[in-house]
Amino acid sequence: MVVRRVREHGITRLTLDSPHNRNALSARLVQELYEALAAAADDPGTRAVLLTHTGNTFCAGADLSEAGAGGAAPLGLVRLMRAVVELPKPVVAAVTGHVRAGGLGLLGACDISVAGEGSSFAFTEARLGLAPAVISIPLLPRLQPGAAARYYLTGERFDAAEAARIGLITVAGEPGEVLPAVLDGLRAASPQGLAESKRLVTAGTLRAFDRDTDALAALSARLFASDEAREGVTAFLERRDPVWAR
């Protein structure tokens, strides 16, 4: 099991627990997380979901070691992100490590996110011959346009303070200090109030899923199958510079 689940005081904590690959979005992790979210949605004792992680990485993005990464994977990630957005209960992310590429899409789908001082973020796709395709569905409505252009194109790393400034996360602060007040606030709200309030703030993102999924999933699959992406992914796995960076 790579997603651990426990419920305490109305909060279901889902922990990404695949440190050997930095909690990458393997087919197994995506499926287990999807199933855990569905279980939380059906659990009357769950008022909100807290998404966290083991190790020094919240999520490293796609598991590039898996075959067929350009096939079903984009649609699998869309399904997972949409499940987070559609869940009738708030999803809160607690980040105390690094987030890369597709992991940013998972983070951006959450309703509230808190990241500590040791966190870092980067859209690394362009450096691999790819693009932040399907993850743009929940992210672009959040991000400042100028910041999206800069970080999509350069792949630069940035910290939690910058992530909060550009709209990627809600709060830059240590989760242990920030989350108690957030979770107490969610416990104080009624299930109906939470569900309908969340529906208001996610309506535009869900319309974007309806509008853009097919085109962006096709773009992702096409890029993964390209010669440049094969070189970029191979270079990454071999820990060398791709040919265009030499």
TrEMBL record:
Lineage: Bacteria, Bacillati, Actinomycetota, Actinomycetes, Kitasatosporales
Stored Gene3D superfamilies: 2-enoyl-CoA Hydratase, Chain A, domain 1, Lyase 2-enoyl-coa Hydratase, Chain A, domain 2
EC primary class: lyase
Protein name: Enoyl-CoA hydratase
Keyword Transferase appears in the UniProt entry: no
Cross-referenced Pfam families: ECH_1
Family, per entry: Belongs to the enoyl-CoA hydratase/isomerase family.
EC number of the protein: 4.2.1.17
InterPro entries: ClpP/crotonase-like_dom_sf, Enoyl-CoA_hydra/iso, Enoyl-CoA_hydra_C, Enoyl-CoA_Hydratase/Isomerase
PANTHER family: ENOYL-COA HYDRATASE (PTHR42964), POLYKETIDE BIOSYNTHESIS ENOYL-COA HYDRATASE PKSH-RELATED (PTHR42964:SF1)
Keyword Magnesium appears in the UniProt entry: no
Organism: Streptomyces eurocidicus (Streptoverticillium eurocidicus)
GO molecular function, one term: enoyl-CoA hydratase activity
Keywords: Lyase
